[in-house]
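PT: before anyone asks, these are the final sequences, not the draft ones from last week. 858 residues across everything. Please model them as a single complex and drop the result in this thread when it's through.
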Amino acid sequence: MRLPVSVKVGLFSIAVMGGYSYFANSIPQIESRPPQELSLEGGNVTPAQLVKAGEEIFKTKGTCEICHRIGQKGTRAPDLAGVGGRAAKMKPGMSATQYLVESLVNPNATIVEGYPPIMPAVDKPPIALNRSELWALTAFLQSLGGTVEVALADIPATAGGESGAGGAATAVALPGDPKAGKAIFTGKGTCMACHKAGDVPGTPVGPDLSQIAQIQTPDYIMKKILDPKGMGTVANFPPGVMPQDFGTRLTAKEYTDLVAFLLTLK
Amino acid sequence: MKRLTPRRACVVALVLFGALLALSALPAGAQEAAKEPAYREFPYIGSRLAVWAVAQLHLNFAAFILGVPIFAVIIEIIGWRTSDARYDWLSHEFVKLTFAAFSTTALLGALLLFLFVGYYPRFWGYMTSVFFPTYWVYALLFFAETFTVYLWYYGWDWLSGSRKWIHVGLGVLSNLFGTAILFVANSWVTFMMSPAGVNEAGAVTGGVWAAINNFTWMPINIHRLIANIVFGGTIAGAYAAFRFLSATTDEERARYDWMGYVGNFVALSAFIVLPFAGYWLGREIYAFNQTMGITMMGGFMSWLWIIQAILIGILFLGSNYYLWLGMERIPGAERYRKYVPPMLIVLTIGFMVWATPRSMVVTLDEARAMGGTHHPLLGFLGVMSAKNTVVNLMILTTFLSYILYRRANKVSTRPWVKTGMALQWAALGLAAVVVVFYGVYGYFVESIVRIGFSVYQVLAVLAAIVLVMAIDVPMFKGASSTGTIRWGTIAPRSQYVLILLAVTFTWLMGLMGFARSGIRQHWHVYGILRDTSPDAVTPALGYASNVITVVTLAFFALVMFIFWLGGLGEKGKAGAHAHAAPVLAGGSDTDR
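LR: through. Structure below.
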C-alpha cells in the first residue's frame, strides 16, 4: 500500500522527535529543587550537628561546589582544603571566624591571588542564606583543618537581612502587646500544640521557637504566620502541618500581639 | 488590490478587539492580583505546564511570522530590481504562509496573557508594576504591524508596477514594526533572567528603561532575530519539501525544489552566524551573574548542552548533505565531488567532539576506575576550548560547501582567477590555523584568559567568510556556464532532509527556551521574586524533552492545518491568480 505523503512526513517527524526524546530520557536525570530553609531555632545544636548542616548547605543551597573544590585545585575558585586552619592567618587582626564570615558576606573584601572576583555575597539573593545557614556554613569551613568555634552571635545581625526568605533579627518596634501575644500563642492560636517557645512548653511537631527572634527577621515571622506553605518548610519537619488560616482566624490586633511576643524570643 | 472579504475582516477585527480587551484589562487585573492568591492551579496538567506549552507554541508562531517577512522582503526587492517575476512569486508565497499564521499567533498570545493573569496573579502583578508603560507601546506596535502586513499582503497587485517601491516600503516597515514588537517582548523575558533597574526587594529604582535595558536584553534581541530567520527559512523549506513530495507535475516539482533551496539557503546563511550571537549571550549571562552562568554550563543543566550539540551537529550535517545532494542536479558539479569526503570527515569529527561531555554521572567504582568523573582522554575534548574550535571549523566547512555549490556550474572567465582562488584557500586555511591555535593554547592558560580566545576564533572565521565572498562575487560575475540547473530532479530524500532541519530546529528552539527559563531555577524573577508554587522544581531533561516533543508536534499539526486552510482559498483559481507560479524546470544558471 502506498502511504500518502502527509502520513510519511508525519511518521518521519515523529520518529525524529521520538529519537531526541529517547536520548534525553536516557541520560542522567537531574532536577533542580528549591532549597529548603534551615532554621536552628532553639540554638541547642552540637558542633557536629552544625558542621553536618553546613556541609549540606555547601553542597546544595549555597551552590559553593559549583566553583570550590575540597582537596582539588579549581580554576574558578581556591581549594578549600585546610581553610579552617589557615583562615586565622589570612588577614592580620582578624580571627578565623571573622575572616570566614567576611568571605561569605563580603567576598570582594579579600581576593585570593590568581582568582577572579566572581564570588557573590551568599546572604543576598539568589543564594540568600539566612543567619542560621551562615552559622552552619562557617562551622563547616572551620572544620576543614581548624576548630569549630563560631557562635551565632558572630554572624552579623544585618546578614541575610534582605533575603526575603529568613535572615537577620533586626530591631523593629511593633504596636503589639507581647503579653497578649503569649496568650494567643498558648490559647486561640494553638501554637503551643506544635512549638516550644522559651518557657512555654510545646511538642516537637514543629521547630522550637525559643530563639526565633534572634534567627529570623520580623518580616519572615509575619509572613510565615500568614502563609506558612509559601514560606517553605523548615528542614527535617513535615510539610503542610501548620494551618494556613491564621490570616482569617486571628484579628489584626491578635496577629500583631502574637508577632510582638515571638519577637521577644531571643 | 485583493478583496478583503467579510470573513477576513471579521477575523482581523476579532483579533484586534481581543488584544485591546486584554490590554485594557491589565491594570484591573494587576489590582485584583494584589488581593488574590499568588497562584491558582490549572486543572489536570498544572499551571506551569499550561503556561509552558502555550508560551512555546506562541513563540514558535511568533518566530515564524517575524522571521519569514525579513527574507520575503529581501526576495521581493531582488525581484523588483531584476524584474524577475519568479522572485516576486516566491516572496508572495512566503508572505502567504506568514499571513495564514498571523491570527493564530495573536490568539495564542492572548491565551498566554490570560493564563498569566489567571494562574500567576502575583507574578503578573509584579511584572505589571515594572513594565506597565511598555504594554501600551506593545499594543500600538501590534496595531501598526497588523495594518502594515495586511496592506502589504492585500496590496500586492494594487501596488505593483510604478508603485512597487511603496509596496516594498510596506514590507520593510512591517519588518521594523515586527522587530520592535520582538524587542519589547524580549525586555519582559530578559528582565526575568537578569533583572535591572530594581533593588533587592524588587522595587523599581531606575525607571522602566533601566529594566528594559538589562544585561541580556540586547544579546537576546540579536540572537532571536537571527534565529527567527533560520526558523522561518527551515519552515518555508519544509513547506516546499512537502509540496515537492506531493507534486504531480514536473513544473510543480521544479518550483518547490527551488523554493526549498531558497528556504534552506536563507536558513543556512543565518545559521552560520547564530553561534556567535550565542557566545555573546553567554558572556552577558556570566557578566550579570557568575552563579547563573556556571549553573547554566556546569550545574544541573550541563547535559542540556550535549543534547544541543547533537541537534546543532545534525543541523550542520543535514544542511551540508542537502547542498551536496543539490549539486547532483547541477551539470559541472562533478568537479567538486572530491571535496565531499574530507568535508564530511571534518563535520563528523566536529560533531563527535562537540557532543563529548566534560564530566559524567558515574558510580563511585566507575569514578575510582577512571580517576574522577572526567574521562582520562575524552574529558579533554569536553571543555570549551575543544568545542569552540570544532564549531568554528564546522562553520568554515559549511561555508565551503556553500561556495562549492555556488560555483557548481560556473567557470570563471577572469584572468586573475588563479590568484583569486589561491587567496580564497589561503583565507580559509589561515582562519582554520587561527582557530586551532587558540583552541590548543586555551588548554595552557587560566579560564579568564581562555574565554577571550573565542573572540579571536570568531573574528578569524568571520574575516575569512567576508574575504572569500568579496573575492568570489567579482570572480564569478559573467562566468561561463557548464549547464543549467535541472530543478525538480533532486533526490526525494533531500526533501526529508529539509523536513529534518525544520523539525530539529523547532525542537532546538524548545530546548533553548527550557534552558533560558530553567536557569532561573526557583525564581520567577531571578533573585527578586521567588517561585513558591508547587511547580518551583525545575524538571529534569527527560521530562522537558517530552514536553518539547509534544509541543513541537502540536505546532506542526497546527501549521499544517493552517496552511491547508490557507490553501483552500487558492483552490480552483490558480490559473486566474495574478501570482501564477512561474515555470522553472530546466531554469537558467542564474536561478540561484
